[in-house]
Amino acid sequence: MSTCSHIEPLLEDYLDGALSREERQVVERHLHGCATCRASFDALRLLQAETTALPRRVAPPHDLWPTIEARLTERAREVDAPGLPIGRNGQADRPPRRSAMRRRPARWLVAVLAVLLVSLGAWWGTRVLFAPSWEIAVLEGVPRVGAGLLEDTGRLRRGEWVETDATSSARLEVGMIGNVEVGPNTRLQLLQARPSEHRLALTSGTIHAQIWAPPRLFFVETPSALAIDLGCEYTLSVDSTGAGLLHVTSGYVALEQGERATIVPAGARAVTRPGYGPGTPFDESATPALQRALTAFDFEGGGTEALDLVLAEAHPDDAITLWDLLYRVPAAQQVRVYERLAALVPAPSGVTREGMLREDAAMVHAWRTYLRLDVENWWEF
Amino acid sequence: MEQQDTITDPQQVLVRRAQAGDTAAFEQLYRTHVDRVYALCFRMVADEERAVRLTQDAFVRAWEHLVRFRAESAFSTWLYRVASNVVLMDLRSTRRRNARFAATDDPTCFEETTHAPTPGLAMDLEQAIAALPLGARSVLVLHEIEGYRHDEIADMMGIAAGTSKAQLHRARKLLKKMLNR
Prior knowledge:
heterodimer; A: alpha+beta; 27% strand; B: Rna Polymerase Sigma Factor, Chain: A; Arc Repressor Mutant, subunit A; 2 domains; elongated
């Protein structure tokens, strides 16, 4: 005979129809003979019935369409060439972009290419022609996509490059998980387009990524770091030397290069340099002096002198910077970094300096949670 | 015969027209679905002004991504998924922004409850849902009201399916307590 303590944890799964047939029978037998558990289950069932019976429709306080329509019009102006109208007269004034590469080969050329294609065999066809691809659309100008020029929309296949000049930009759909706007003067390559791995290489220029997906599905390789999406929105730029600047506006991004790794939360930035990897993240409100001191510390061998400047310049919003430095500075400097951090942001209850310096797992976790850097559990609140 | 000529479902006709850039058709879709989208947004964020903004965001995003809708699922299903993603993204970014390094060691200061319950007073169910912590409320609304499975919620929220179940359990427990049951 099963006990109440054995049955109680199963009641919700029973309610949700998530039990196996055998488990279901055990629960039903128990409920038949136990008034206490039956009352508990009835309360659960009533609550669920009331919740699922709540009205599916709630009218907004006012008509939202005028604002939405104005935004659609504004969006159309941003996307289309100046002068293209958007109307509400039932006509397709702004049709969605469809594939239309500028270079359209003549029929005889198509025939010759078809013969060549067949002769190349299934391997080539599988690897190149049917390679995974993402939709790409022009935002401005005429970007180059693969070997052709993109006039409207097209597909970017695995291995192909997007190249924009000073007057062009494009919008790339990242599978089903988000999009990337490719800014002017940018070179970007699609490296992988699988549902479990979306990977780009940014060699120069600027992209703005919006990703709606669980962490670690979207990656951007740069010459100085790998940017790993942890569910976020961000802008990433790479200059001609391969140095990068990441600005996260929502969620988190991990930056990795070799053994160096850091997490950049929303509202923070980080610089990356070839040969060094990612620098220390800093809040977008960080003073220029603090940013200069960080550059010296991270990339120019600034040592203790640079660290002194960072600590002197730090404000409460710079806790992210001090947190990142805490376990990167030499042991002799850790006390100073921790003291400054704890002075700016009161330590969580139960956390001691000694515990933090010996990297007590529970205390480190408490600090990370407190600073909202507990990325893996950021929905558990 | 082209596929377009075979479509007789008025909803699908509107979707096709909207995909071709017809904002009047999209307005009709808006009129049909806005109450469902607003209800979802309002229950998730428990704030009228924010729900209005998110409802607008959801329809703008749906318009932007309409060409990707392939009619493999109902338009309504697709639209509510878009709306759910818009709300979840907003919750994530807002939570992050609001929580930045507050000078306090009280961990409960981050328990976002928009409409705090008044002790001793019985609450109706809508009020109680609005008073739930954000994570529990999000899962409850998506599971119980919108009908998503735990694995779907896990995908949308970037959490484990077990966490989604735990949040639902937490939500039910808190609701029972708030409703004095």
